[in-house]
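Schema walk-through. Below, the input block comes first and the output block second. Nothing else is stored per chain. Lengths vary across the set, and this one has 727 residues.
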Amino acid sequence: MIVGELKTALRDYFGFDQFKGKQEAIIQNVLDGKNTFVIMPTGGGKSMCYQLPALVLDGTAVVVSPLIALMKNQVDAIRQVSNNESVAHFLNSSLSKSEINQVKKAVQDGETKLLYVAPESLTKKENIDFLTSVNVSFFAIDEAHCISEWGHDFRPEYRRLREIFEKISAVPIIALTATATPKVQYDIQKNLNMLDATVFKASFNRDNLHYEIRPKREVEKQIIKYIRTKEGKSGIIYCLSRKKVEEIAELLQVNGINALPYHAGLDASTRAKHQDMFLMEEADVIVATIAFGMGIDKPDVRYVIHHDIPKSIESYYQETGRAGRDGGEGECLAFYSYKDIEKLEKFLQGKPVAEQEVGRQLLNEIVAYAETSVCRRKFVLHYFGEEFNENECGEFCDNCKHPKERKEGMEYVSLLLNAIMELQETQKSKHYCAYLSGNLTPDIINYRHDTLPGFGKGNEKDEHFWNAVIRQVAVAGLVYKDIETYGTLKLTDAGKEFIVQPASFLLIKEHDFSNTDDEDALVNIGGKGGAFDETLYEMLLDLRKSISKQRNIPPFVIFQEQSLKDMCFQYPITIDELTHIQGVGTGKAARYGQPFIELIHVYVHDNDIDRPQDMVVKSLVNKSVLKVQLIQNIDRKLPLEDIGRSQGKSMNEVIEELEAIVSSGTRVNIGYYIDDILDPENQEEIFDYFSEAETDDLITAYKEFDGDYNEEELRLMRIKFMSEMAN
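--- output ---
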């Protein structure tokens, strides 16, 4: 087909005047009957590369696609460009027998130009026999990385595609993927017996996407605040488990955000309904599992959030690639905690050893990406075998926007490269980190590497530092990880040259992700928003002191110090807001709160303070059921040990729970229990002490009584005192 005719077809079917990138050359290659391999990032226009040739060629193009949702989406889209409803169909397990027969009839009648087939459906004998009887124009394999065991979404049924194609028809193949490292690319071509294919590789750089990694601290609160700044815009949130998807979707809904869950555990009709609502902008946010691929082709997704880090850079790249497909704004925010990596490592257990090795290597790469301070765009593109000058990133990743300090690292790079040479390029990153920092790991001892001259030469730095050096010299092209040997470090020619003639090498300080709170439960996240306000704290202490003198009660009975400190983070200015402060319940807020909120209100106004409470986040999970049971059992005068056993708690945990209940303003009567362990005169002595004490500190109380009472007795009496005096 000549150029003019191709452009006419493009305009007639899709309404575009120009092809995008390499689309025209790819389509021409397919029309010429040649095998074609397309590596093009998400949003680059891959679908057009097989849709247009299918529409202009005789016969039906068979498109293998792994996702039922994606098939439906693409069939709906292609039907919009034709007045023939049967121009595209899909054949998969979601169809009834009569629907399958209707699809087959449309193909036999020559009405269907594109037939989307799941790989599982293609292996069925009746479908192979059917396709053998019709005119197939070519085979297209979407998401071709599923063929490779080194890909991020390997599917064994994809490995059989070539033999099935050969049974059906000797027509050309076009394989397409949005993510393929050089190793994966070779694996796909070899498996499909198409090493002769013309390869079209577009740049993986999506210059409209902004990449950011944050430590996983107060993650739900961060997500809600972030989404509130994107009101009316479409977004996707990825989670590791179905349970977390449901929790996050519900949490967003509770906080007034129009969100829906989307995972393989939902029935097909619910999934389809949620997908359509997202596409039709009846929902702003879809929360989905990483494990279940999202077949949603929506051009104006403005942000993609990873609540949990994915299992590989390929997964991350493909999922973030759903943002900004129209070339507009696209923000990619991921939360990282090493606990996520440990969970993913557990999933690998029990799999074949080779598969575990591949999985671990992919995880190591995503850890390196998350923790690096190098330009994130440069890091990702280097992973896919593409060079990139970080100066072109501008401020489109967090590392370029907020660059870390750089220090001369020539001597460290030389030490590392010499160590790799000394150990004859036989070890992985972890081993070199231990070797240089002088750690006697079992492998170091077994290989007798502690006897070599280079052992411990870099012991003034820890393994974390050496890991950072390895990552940065890899991105700089001085070493590479040999995939065949599951990540053994090898020297490149440039690395060997550096050993002979060392040059300046600026090392960037890595991120510290050691402090994360990757908790399973969703907690009350109204919490801390900014820096601690020392000035306000002194004012609140003075106010508490004056009220304690007026009422003739110890200051800690009014509000404990942690409550005052929390007020200096949150700035509550109503009684309701005060009840969200740590250790303040409705009773205590009503009794003592008014002068405190009045002082804070004036302080906030006079100092023009932006309060985190202005972004209140409602919590989803309420643990009050166990608290109610605890109070009810105390009302029934059950022994505290028995109450603890019934809730699976130790005595210490029961006392902690009681302390929290009482400090928040709820009265509990544990006198019946204390009567069994302390005589009345002992109780009176301790009660009198707390009445006159400046502090409720237990160590101070213990010293005051010279150890006559143990910690448990003092804590229980303090609970009784606070309950009677404060509540």
